[in-house]
Records
---
Amino acid sequence: MENILKDRKYCIVTFGCQMNEHDSEIIAGMLEEYGAYAVEHEEADIILLNTCSVRENADKRFFGTLGQLKKRKQENENLIVCVCGCMMQQQHIIDTLKEKYPWVDVIFGTHNIHNFPGILTRVITEKQKMIEIWEDGGEIAEGLPSKRLYKHKSFVNIMYGCNNFCTYCIVPYTRGRERSRNPEDIVREVRELAADGVKEITLLGQNVNSYRAKDTDFTDLIYLLNDISGIERIRFMTSHPKDLSDRLIQAFADCQKLCKSIHLPVQSGSSEILRRMNRRYTKEDYLRLVEKIRSAVPDIAITTDIIVGFPGETEEDFAETLDLCRKVQYDSAFTFLYSIRKGTPAEKYEDQIPEEEKHRRFNELVDLINESSARKNEAYVGRIEKVLVDGPSKTRDNVLTGRTDSFKLVNFEGDDELIGTIVDIEITSANTFSLMGKRV
Ligand code: SAH
Ligand code: SF4
Ligand code: F3S
């Protein structure tokens, strides 16, 4: 069959988490294998919006962007508008798209991204619209190409889906049940990445701690990857506190390449709210875990996710969250206003918290988190840190940015040839969100 995708100009807009970013990299990789190439939004013949449904504002941003494409489509009837990602796994979204957004040409889900070039080819040759959504994951598609954002670092999916069903969360419905990749496939991919110049990998999964393929669990996998030469840094996300094992904590000491940072979403400091979120740990369990991690790996940076205003969250529950944050002293945290997600158990919970109350609590929490972030960063001043240089600063000329082992953002003066290398930087000053330094 003729390759109809050759020389087509595409643009992908990604909403959502690293999982989605990585899916977009794979879609881009596939399109480029067919000879298509990436351009800015305004010049594209193919526009793909890769959506997220984790909170309401993600939905809103998507519909806003899609609304703007109506005019583009009227001006250029050859423009192909495609949508994919987590929102497409929800029937009510598909119904809305069919009813109100007739300029959409292609809709596909999270389980069949590998079919996109085929779907697109049919849409172009047969001049028709197409919807292809699979309910569940099935076999994992291996060997897909990927167009990485950075030459020196890469995401690596180790598992797909989630079985945890936290009561607020839509992800188990949009990404299906947990499926782990075979360790041989992961090792092969990481070897290939290393051969291609990649120094840092970030292992991705909604709950990497429940990775399991035959006899290999997540900690075994870390030891396997730690042996691959060329790879200098290994990160992972996300860890569910209920599944983080002592063996994994031990791995931080044993595996030189495992970076000293951990993202450990707590969601709430109230054991009662945690119970109703179905998180399956208490405030005390979590604090004990943090203590265990810190005594084994004293320098480790700990970050988290917190939801404010979960249904029924009382002033006392919220005070427990503040108390937990004071005790843990996070390096940083993503804080979210609880957002009702259609189809999740918490949608039906009574005592939804009024918006202005959620905002008040949210602001109080952010102030507290910022204090501990600033304090943690301040402690870096005077230290010499190994920084993997990512690229030029977006805001300042002649300034490069990179990350420490503990994932702190560092700005320093230097030439572009340092990009992709690991350099020694003396930290000269700090603020809430980043560090400044100079080369030594
Ligand atoms: N699998 C990861 C996180 C996936 S979603 C984990 O379990 O940690 C990323 C974050 O979004 C969650 O940690 C949670 O803090 C937040 N989140 C998910 N659903 C939400 C909702 N309905 N309202 C507000 N925040 C939500
Ligand atoms: Fe959502 Fe919970 Fe699964 Fe994370 S572990 S993706 S928060 S259901
Ligand atoms: Fe969003 Fe889907 Fe990720 S809902 S957070 S893009 S898994």
---
Amino acid sequence: MSLYAVMGYPIGHSLSPEIHEAFGALTGLDVRYERREVRPAGLAEALSAFRAQEGRGANITVPLKGEAYALATRTSARAERARAVNTLAWQGGGWFGDNTDGAGLIRDLTVNHGWSLQTRRVLVVGAGGAAQGIVGPLLDAGITHLAISNRNPERARDLVAACRDARVGVADTGVAGASPFDVVINATAAGLSGDLPALPDALFEGAIVYDLMYGPKAQVFLSHARAHGACAVADGLGMLVEQAAESFLLWWGVRPATESVLARLRAEVGAA
Ligand code: NDP
């Protein structure tokens, strides 16, 4: 029987096994999916061991998405654009690398929440692996302006340059008065340590605010946004489920329905 896994460090709290097993139950497929702790620089060795056990596909999470991109023998256009891989599939004797994070975010925003991105002005806070994965799909979703802000400004400038799109710029977050953004997306890891990325409070007024983190770790940012006038807020649980559905489609050729899985996880994780 073929084996699937999520690899990263730390990995203990990953919900991916639960999500993929639930998709298996919904689609009638016999899914065997494990968590594997893999430290930085350890992915090549972990994948060799995984192949020896009939490993057919892996989700790759922090901090290994760049390593997975370098190790993939072929990559999808969206992985190429992100320069990061979150899904590996064993195909034709090598690892095919894809990036489903952006597609997962767009589907959560537009389908699950019903928020159109057409003509929106969007701020992405963060310039790490997650931000790299979402900027291309956001641009494809019809937004008119994308600003990127990051604690380390050089990384924000690099990501802007890599986008090669006139709609993208480094954020000027020194606003007074109405927020220049319709949508604010927190793609930083600040919530892991209970921190807020440094942003003016006025940025949240009237904006849709989304945090890629989910559950209690997203609450620092989302509560702050609510308190400063956000018109709607959401955490990244829907994105997590939707990016998993895209990986499942790549591996099994069928896209599972996500509503019941998302509802079950929401009950476990708590409100957004
Ligand atoms: P990386 O380690 O690649 O990047 C971390 C980013 O967070 C950098 O931009 C970093 O800034 C910033 N950052 C970290 N700490 C702080 C802080 N205290 N204040 C301000 N900025 C900070 O991580 P990823 O980009 O891969 O992941 C970011 C988050 O997104 C993770 O928490 C992850 O769980 C979540 N995520 C959720 C997904 C989902 O499906 N819901 C999918 C992918 C990611 P600097 O460059 O200055 O260090």
---
Amino acid sequence: MDKFIINGGKRLEGEITISGSKNAALPLVIASILSDEISVIKNVPNLADIRSMILILEVLGTDARLEGSTLNIDPIKCDKYEAPYDLVRKMRASVYALGALLGRCGKARVSFPGGCVIGPRPIDLHLMGLEKLGAKIEIEHGYIIASADKLVGADMLLRGPNGPSVGATVNVMMAAVKAEGVTTIREASCEPQIIELAGFLKDMGAQIEGEGTPLMKIQGVKELHGANHSVIPDRIEAATYMIAAVSTRGNVLIKKAKASLMESVIDKLREIGANIAEGSDGIRISAENPLKPVDVRTSPYPGFPTDVQSQIMALMTTVEGISVITETVHPERFMHVSELNRMGADIKIEGQSAVVKGVDYLSGAPVMASELRGGAGLVIAGLGADNQTVISRIYHVDRGYEHMEQKLAGAGADIVRVSE
Ligand code: UD1
């Protein structure tokens, strides 16, 4: 198992280039099996999660090759319909195989995604939506078995107790594009990856209206064809490096970052005191002391992303005053708090909020990543801390950040990867 060794206290300066969005690419990769023709997806990040999705394609009989950042997918021989436990357990987005297989061949056998360290992550809305389209769903031996002689468009509300669901919207979209008649999704997720999936499906010949709004309408079609598509830049990766720049009071050009995808993060960083300017090649961000404490409340897009909660918390640990960070999307997503406190932070959890009292400095310590974005928060903490921070279990971080240590070292950070 690899770990990061960070000698903190170095100001980030220079450029960091953002890769394609993991969360936008994952649905496109599996949606490609909705046709029998070749699809080409460009700007795909070479990440553990993407490789897991490619393995699922291969298990289903699809030919997929990732060369550089271009993924060629030939689904003509896709004749299996089972996504096994060994692959699905590694990544929750594997459950997208359910909607894609139902859309392709009317049947799917997909392992139930396991519990997740960021709290309970049910898939009741996914199953309800697919059932509304006419799928019969059974749970047997840890597998979801879905079948439909015919998928028929339906009217559905996809809202859960914590708001709309990205994953349920993705799954329903992939089945609905091939259903007979019109599907109306109320309270659909508005996240950029939904707009991206709709764009890809439309390039394949699907008829979709209202993507990016809570009311989406899909007119099913009989056939889809292959498509060529380039994935949008990763707004969560961009936000992570922007926060790292602020945390080290640095000055960095975040190349390829798109401000229109991350306005809530930019507004918050400006409130903290960062200087941010968007140019044709990306976003320039810099910060100097003193910075101001802020309150942050995560919520579905266009609100402040839950996937940036731990990173902004790491930043606020050394900003004088009290910052309150409230998590409404994954209310139990606070595993990074105890690790930040081990580095000298002063954070108390009160219900769904973390109350962060700014301290003068964090001190480097051995810490452990327990989930993807929480791990990124620890990296930010380590970059700003004095002395050495050793972060173990960085396989979590590798799921979502391409060459993180190389990108940060290129901007002046003292960070290396070593094998344990
Ligand atoms: C996606 C993102 C993840 C992000 C999350 C919220 C991908 C691959 N992952 O995850 O990085 O943190 O959106 O922005 O894009 N819920 C239910 N029932 C369901 C499904 C979800 O109650 O059937 C709840 C969840 O527990 C959670 C909320 O709805 O509280 C939002 O989850 P959802 O949008 O589905 O997240 P994911 O698609 O899993």
---
Amino acid sequence: MNPDIRNIVILTGAGISAESGLATFRGPDGLWEGHRVEDVCTPEALSRDPLLVHRFYDERRAKLTEVVPNPAHEALAMLDHAWPGDLLIVTQNVDDLHERAGARRLIHMHGELRSALCAACGKAMPWEKALPSGSICDGCGKAALRPDIVFFGEMPYQMDAIDTALRRADMFVSIGTSGAVYPAAGFVQTAAHVGARTLELNLDPSAGSIYFEETRLGAASLLVPEMVRDLLA
Ligand code: OAD
């Protein structure tokens, strides 16, 4: 283990789950599973067409039962268990593949498919099945449950904890994200500002590649286990 590296923050995006069979957000056609992001991932879309938005996330939630973690999720879970210093995996993904691989030090900054959120009282609750529009919150009793997804224009989860970890980081790694969506796209600059080593693992150079000290291009299922082996060597 490199003795200079003690505190690690790892940001993951849709690319880490691609080899498990989950579509990335920005496919070659610019669509997410055939939809424009503005049609399924904004508060306006939810009020304009709740049936479409609920159905869209119901389909994504159902798809989780058909996929399993890949070697990249497994390697990060192994690192989480073995790493003696601080470590935080911050995922933009709403799938549950990191936790199914065994990762524990994990934040879902953009929410989770397997969670429902009450738009009236703010209570979040585990949710496995379809979530029809108008479902009742078991906290306040209102028919206000929605997918627990952070839509564009809403505040991502646990930003204070993420910012604290970034400011203490000796190493920041970004895996499988296009760097198109803030605030996650700006994490590399915060980490670089405090002197952390910055490493990007991605299939193609991301929008923020210039901010990283090092970029390794390739499939996450190959690059992530390699990086974990190096870190634990
Ligand atoms: P994107 O779809 O924008 O980017 C996925 C990135 O993964 C691209 O840069 C690909 O080159 C890369 N990639 C694809 N396959 C890969 C593989 N096998 N190994 C390594 N890299 C691979 O997804 P995100 O950056 O995660 O927000 O998108 C960020 C946010 O935009 C999402 O969290 C979502 C979306 O709108 C919300 O849902 C709020």
